[in-house]
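Collaborator request, handled under Task 6.
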Amino acid sequence: MMIQRRSRPLVVACLLLAAVTSAASGCAKSETSDNAGGDSSQGAQTAKSLESSSGSGCSLQAYGAPKLDLKDAVVGFSQSEKEANPFRIAETRSIKDEAEKVGVRKLLTTNAQSQLSKQISDIQDMLSQGAQFLIVAPLNSDGLEPAFKAAAAKKVPVLTIDRKVNSTACKDHVAFLGSDFVEQGRRAADAMIKATGGKGKVAVLLGAAGNNVTTDRTKGFVDQLEAQAPGLEIVAQQTGEFARDKGQQVMEQLIQSKPDITAVYAENDEMGLGAVTALKAAGKKPGKDIKIVSVDGTRNAVQALVDGEYNAVIESNPRFGPLAFATAQKFYNGEEIPENVIISDRAYDESNAKASLGGAF
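Structure tokens returned to the collaborator:
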């Protein structure tokens, strides 16, 4: 990622709330979750300390955008994937709920349905409708340049969430808000080592290609196993595209081609839950015969932990609304925003799953 450096020190010691009120839980129909969103009182995002954030600061003056009162603003939110995934349901709901709470005059929302060309046109359309500030959940790390250039031409700031883009901070976008995905991979590896005793054969269900989440979660996991558990051998890496049905299909194939697999690392919960379905259909006991660790923190995955069909879940908190709008307000107040604002994520295992179920989304 290109980084624009500045010599002056950051002046954002109180950049973001230590804990922010997350989106209120509502009722959203999903093909994969009965109650995506969870208990908002337990699911608030927390930004890590300033030292954990990185990159040079970006101010309103440096970005060259006009002053804006969010209560008199048109804000656009570009969602990347269809809302049949609990993460996306919770993310969109959080943005909508916080926009209403803040009192934003008008919130425009779009969904790219996992099509890069549509996300580009969605962003351009919101600009045509008068969007003055944009929150974007990128589909891929590359490819959104035409949309970002259109925003820059109108001096509309862009805040990216949950996936990084390979563009210049404080020029093409203000900042990135999200998790440390490499660290998520390392924590998943640690959980896998604990579940397996550090020995066995692991299959990795990779996320979608073309974004930093997949790359980073893979790197963190692979590097940690190599360093800490050479007895855990990765025998397969195959993409399940972050989808439950794809994860199930890949697991069905692996059961046939790699019958000696003893563990599965899924780079999101949906693929992990698909693997559970495939393993049960094959007469195997997920969580026992085959250890399973995944990333996200959906209610369904945490429930699988409670039921003994899972071994660990590393959270990736999707409730970006409060943090995104708090960051926007700081930005328009003239404060500098770090290039990368990293949030803290919890972890679930058999010791805390039941008690923590209400905070899952």
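The cover message to the collaborator said: "The chain is about 35% helix and 20% strand. Residues 1-42 have pLDDT under 50 and may be disordered. Please let us know whether this matches your experimental observations."
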